Amino acid sequence: MDGIQLEILWSNLVSIVSEQAKALQRIAFSPIVREAGDLATALFDAKARMVAQAVTGTPGHINSLGAAAKNLLAEIPPEDLQPGDVLITNDPWMSAGHFFDITILTPIFHQQRLIGYCGSTIHHTDIGGYGVGAGARDIHEEGLWIPVLKLYEQGKPNTTLHRIIRQNTRTPDAIFGDLSAQVSSGKMGGERLIGMCERYGLSDIEALSEAIISRSEVATREAIRKLPAGTTHGETTFDVPGGEMITLKTAVSVDTELGEITIDFEGSSPPSRSGINVVMAYTHAYSTFAIRSVLNPDLPNNAGSLAPIKVKAPGNCIINAEYPVPLNARHVVGMYVPFPILKALSQIVPERVLAEGSGAVWTIQIQGRDRNGRPFTSSMFNYSGGMGARAGKPGLSATCYPTGVAAVPVEVLEASIPIEFTCKELAPGTGGAGRFRGGDGQRIGFRMRTDQEWLLNAIPSRLHTCPEGLFGGEPGASGAFLINGEATLGGQKRAMNASDEILMHTPGGGGYGTPPTT
Question: What distance in Å separates the CA atoms of residue 380 and residue 6, rounded to the nearest whole number?
Answer without folding.
Answer: 40
